[in-house]
């Protein structure tokens, strides 16, 4: 997986960097990890809490009650970890999470969009040939991997600034987890049509978000 970082000053985006890995050393502040029920998202939340002794982490997922790893982490860091319900396919839950964060913290210093789907048993499978592509798979992958993250940025962007209970910084950071297979220029193997197309769309959405006001 690769991630892309957007750094914003108080009004407009001023820096853009990409790397295969990013440090989770983030001293203090308010961090949001979207898609933290398991996998990379859960590990981001864990590292942000374990590697730093200050700051708060907000972890979101579609079904918090079923996220056992996240609930265990909440038991370990009850004062520094908040868990919120957020379903990328339901915009009202994104909006509700943003409202809750605003009321409690007033701002965000770091936003990590970690959700993504490649396969779901009996629903979505990585296509090995073109004749296995289905419209429902394309639409679901696009909704979760591309549309959802940009909607999260949309609703969280007013919070990405210095202020509230966060710490003073020159920039707020948004990190969207993409993938190398989302590259149009580096796609020699083919296959995984739904996943590749949705990640390519996410990369384009990130470029379009570079100039939004915060």
TrEMBL record:
It comes from the Eukaryota. It holds the Pfam family adh_short. InterPro entries: Fungal_SecMetab_SDRs, NAD(P)-bd_dom_sf, SDR_fam. One of its GO terms (molecular function) is oxidoreductase activity. Signal peptide: none annotated. One of its GO terms (cellular component) is cytoplasm. This is Uncharacterized protein. It comes from Citrus unshiu.
């Amino acid at each position: 997986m690769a991630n892309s970082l957007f750094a914003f000053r108080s009004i407009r985006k001023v820096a853009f960097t990409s790397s295969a890995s990013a440090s989770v050393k983030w001293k203090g502040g308010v961090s949001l990890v979207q898609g933290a029920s398991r996998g990379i998202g859960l590990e981001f939340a864990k590292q942000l809490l374990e590697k730093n002794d200050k700051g708060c982490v907000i972890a979101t997922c579609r079904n918090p009650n079923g996220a056992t790893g996240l609930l265990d982490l909440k038991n370990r860091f009850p004062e520094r970890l908040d868990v919120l319900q957020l379903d990328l396919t339901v915009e009202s839950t994104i909006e509700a999470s943003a409202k809750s964060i605003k009321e409690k913290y007033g701002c965000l210093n770091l936003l990590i969009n970690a959700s993504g789907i490649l396969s779901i048993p009996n629903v979505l499978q990585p296509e090995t040939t073109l004749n296995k592509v289905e419209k429902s798979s394309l639409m679901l992958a696009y909704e979760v991997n591309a549309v959802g993250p940009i909607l999260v940025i949309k609703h969280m962007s007013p919070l990405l600034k210095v202020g509230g209970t966060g710490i003073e910084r020159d920039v707020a950071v948004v990190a969207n987890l993409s993938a190398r297979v989302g590259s149009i220029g580096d796609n020699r193997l083919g296959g995984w049509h739904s996943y590749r197309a949705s990640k390519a769309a996410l990369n384009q959405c990130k470029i379009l978000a570079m100039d939004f006001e915060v």
